[in-house]
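If your schedule permits, I should be very grateful for your opinion on a structural question. Thank you for your consideration; the sequence and its tokens are set out here:

===
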Amino acid sequence: MIEHLIALVTGAGLGYWNVVLAIVKTVGVAKSVAFVVLSTFALYLLFIGVMYFKRKRIAENGHLKWWEWSVVIPMLVIGYPIDIVYNIIIGTVLFKELPQFNALTFSARIKMHEDDTDWRGVFARWVCKRYLRPYDPTHC
């Protein structure tokens, strides 16, 4: 398995989908599907929660109560690393490219591809319109 990952990173040897299939074969289909579904659900719930407090903070002229900060800070501390890992693993599969340093999070990758004219742009605009903008119109 490690040889497959090295080949993916270096671009040598295996084709892209062969690497994905090797990982799924090693981990198992059920675990792979469970990981994708659960991590997507967790990331989306954290995104919705953080965007709620962002809108509330804007509405109240930049002020949140102490207990609201005690909720939002753990959401950020937990959500940001999840977003980065999600982007590295699932974003790489969805966009068929390794993440770039200037787009560490999944939403940053969406923003990066939003103006593209290829299939990545179509997918990025769909995710943005359908899932991100309803909770933060300025997000992408």
